[in-house]
Amino acid sequence: MSLIEIKNLSVSYPSRRGVFKALQQVSLTLQAGEIHGLVGESGAGKSTIGSAIMGLLEHPGEISGGEIHFCGESIGELSDSALQQLRGSAIGMIFQDPLTSLNPLMSVGQQLIETICYHLKLSKSAAKERALALLKEVDIPQPEVRINQYPHQFSGGMRQRVVIALALCSEPKLLIADEPTTALDVSVQAQILELIKRLVKKHQLGVILVTHDMGVIAQTTDKVTVLFRGKVVESGPTQQLLAAPEHRYTQSLLSAVPRSDKKMPRFTQVSWLDGAKPLDKTDFARDWQGENNLHQSNAVPMLEVKNISLSFKAKSSIFSKTAAPTKAVDDVSFTVNYGEVFGIVGESGSGKSTIARLITRLYNPDSGSIHYRGESVVGKLQKQHLQNFRRRCQMIFQDPYSSINPRMRVRDIIAEPILLYGLNDRNGAYQRVAKLLDYLGLEQAAAVKYPHEFSGGQRQRISIARALATEPSLLICDEPTSALDVSIQAQILNILKDLQSELGLTMIFISHDLPVIRQMCDKVAVMKAGKIVELTESETLFTAAQHSYSQSLLKLMPDMHR
Amino acid sequence: MGAIGLAMYKYLLQRLVQGILVMLVVTFVAFAIFHFLGDPVNNMVGESATDADRQMVRLQLGLDEPVIVQYFKFVGNILQGDFGISYRTRTSVIEQMAVRLPATLELSLVSGFFSILFGIPMGIYCALQPKSWLSRNFLVGSLVGISIPTFLSGLLLIYLFSVTLGWLPSQGRGGLVSLGWWDTSLVTLKGWSYIIMPALTLCIYQLTLITRMVRAEMQEVIRTDYIKFARARGLSNYIVQYRHALQNSLVPVVTIIGLQLGTVVAFSIITETVFNWPGLGQMFIQSIEFVDIPVMSAYLIFVGAFFVILNLIVDLVYALVDPRLRAA
Q1: Among the four A232, A252, B69, B299, which has the fewest Cβ within 10 Å?
Q2: Which stretches within chain B are classed as H helix?
Q3: What is the ipTM of this complex?
């Protein structure tokens, strides 16, 4: 008998504007001791399956058809209280963001003991014993000390371990893991996936692993189901499906994943999707007033960063001696040549974004110098000089949802920098906006809409258009695609590649994603704890990494092409 | 609630120093009123006084000394509990306030107690059952409550319960039992009959504020991941809502309750006037009419000190509830 069997499951969200079908006729089965991956892009309905099994569909969602059998019993026939008993005791669930999954006001021990007492009806002391054993099982060092600590005293990876321990409190048979490692660094991700695999073996757990990351699927799961807009497109054993995908959607999805084993000229687009029409962009490039850096050979590099350091001091008070400052950027030097894409890669907290903010002068360095075309751009500058530099150096941010002002129309968002630098009058600026929208593959109607009417990928295009509005020569991209789906990521990365080849932009490309770095960058700097540990041609990094940290990063990167 | 570490003491000490700084500013303002608002000598001597008389009073009061010396003497006197002599009653200001303080404090505490007692459960109910007719009525009712000015709601209560029904006395403070220097009206039924109406009047605004605040915070918290995760662990609704969600929603509400209690004490003036309640607010109004500057400045210092102390308590409660502040 299979652990869980889903037959023709349909979930719909009725609303005033009609019924939205989140899932249609989805079927899958899972045996004990098996990891089943659910993969698809955002809105495909991956997470809805998990919520439907748990009976935690958000209002007004409802199961409109089909059956879910858990250990041979139909879940749909259970009462609310029986379902609540099933949750936690027989089915556990873990969520994406470990930083927000724990109650901040209760110690880890209190939360564990509460859950254990509730399900297993143990005494307080017996529950504490079990809590300690669970913390040990998920490899938390010094469980006797950690059990009395609060969530904010744990790092992201450690919190996810606590979350797993909580989900395992009453020895569930099924674990639903909804993007369990998406918010974590690669090294921590590898550890968490390893932990899940070990638990599966030891307890004969069945795991449903929801993820958008093909690398995670390839390395962790036994079977995989591909979802597209609420329907199952393809399902089968992982190795077989990845090696020989049958459906066109699966094929195009797989081809959109950036490869880490070789550099491709362009990303394969998910052509099965509509709306990715080829654009005629030669016109815009001819019109481009900014300088083309591609074929300039200059004795002076475009950007020269020398020995910059920046420390963040803990908030000082008159009573406490100031805590040792954290060195966010520690004696970093590099040069960026004309027309080059310079990559910066590293885990969270390594100082990547701080460097971007130092260059754009959002922060001032404690020491060191930054020269743009041989002229210093740190310290006190003449207003004219600073304005000129800022105009030439633009930035694209990670989160397309929070980096655009939601109360402004798209055309005003893009026109704002043009007007700010006095490059044109309002009418001229709007004409420019129309051209930019066209160049980035957005409809003209987009100009009068507000940001919330666009998807993440479209918003990132708006963000790029805004950066291009001043015709910069240096573009700093801080994790420009890490909030996006692979197919959208491929589109955005292609746009950035085109900017480089057609407009001759110089770029600093910051990412934690090694395959993306390989596809995008000419040179790359690997950062760890504020320092550059290795700086090399990007091809060299992937074929012959020198530093042990770069090697371990490369080894940990989940990869479907291996 | 766990060990209170060294960091906590530091945090509280910091707050204490801030409080002292605030009090120095407040006393300076009070002193400035005393010094610059009209001529105290004119207020004290009769109209027929000669210049020599005036000069003598001036010397007696120490008004010939430099301003800064006068300020330090002023602060020194306050620290010894000497707020000077009231122009109006010719009695010591501190004694006058001590007689009236119990009335105002009791009124504020009773009204604060009512608003917490009803406000928090109403807020929780409105957050958990947003669609029920009862919570809609609560919300509409609270809107009405917040829009009616205190003097009007006070008069309406008097009209209903005193004039029409004749159940409650319309004004004053009675049924007092003396506990040393504190005369309380809370131990007799008669005392309660006097305090209930002004307390209700005063609590309507706080009640709505607390209800709406609890509701908004709770709705916010219920949408967070840790509440979803608590449900996914199969914990009962009761535990999820009353242990995890409520605890987290109350953290910001504590601040509002603390500050509101301060406002109730400081600005119960209107209610005290409507109900002829012999509290500090009434005294303040009378002293303004008479330009009784020592009383006014003493009242100012009292209100400042009260706010500072309340804020300290709020900070302490914060640190006790939220482990993130404790660790620092």
Answers
A1: B69
A2: 6-36, 40-44, 51-61, 67-79, 93-128, 133-147, 150-157, 189-222, 225-232, 237-238, 246-266, 269-274, 280-289, 293-321, 323-327
A3: 0.75
Interface of B with A (CB under 8 A): 2, 10, 13-14, 17, 224-226, 228-237, 239, 243-244, 247-248, 251, 321-324, 327
At residue A329, the 3 state secondary structure works out as: strand
Please name the member of A56, A105, A119 whose beta carbon is closest to the beta carbon of B247. A105
Question: Looking at the predicted structure, is the pLDDT value of residue B1 above 70?
Answer: no
Q: What does the domain layout of chain A look like in residue ranges?
A: 282-315+323-556
pLDDT digits (tens, 9 = 90+) for A144-172: 888 988 888 888 888 888 999 999 888 88
Residue A222's pLDDT is 93
CA angle (B311, B317, B322) in 5-degree steps: 125
Which one of A87, A95, A105 has the shortest CB-CB distance to B234?
Answer: A87
Judged by average pLDDT, the poorest of A249-253, A281-285, A329-333 is A281-285
| Residues in A touching B322 (Cβ below 8 Å) | 104-105
In whole angstroms, what is the distance from residue A216 CA to residue A39 CA? 10
Question: Where does A282-315+323-556 sit in CATH, by number?
Answer: 3.40.50.300
CB-CB neighbors (< 8 A) of A183 in chain B:
none
Distance CA B91, CA B94 (A): 9
Residue type, A331: D
Show the tokens assigned to B272: 């005290």
**Ordered structural domains, chain B, with CATH:** 93-327 (1.10.3720.10)
- Number of Cβ within a 10 Å radius of residue B139: 16
Is pLDDT at A317 greater than 70 in this prediction? no
CB within 8 Å: A104 and B243: no
- Give the model confidence (pLDDT) of B308-317 as tens digits: 888 888 888 8
SS3 A134: helix
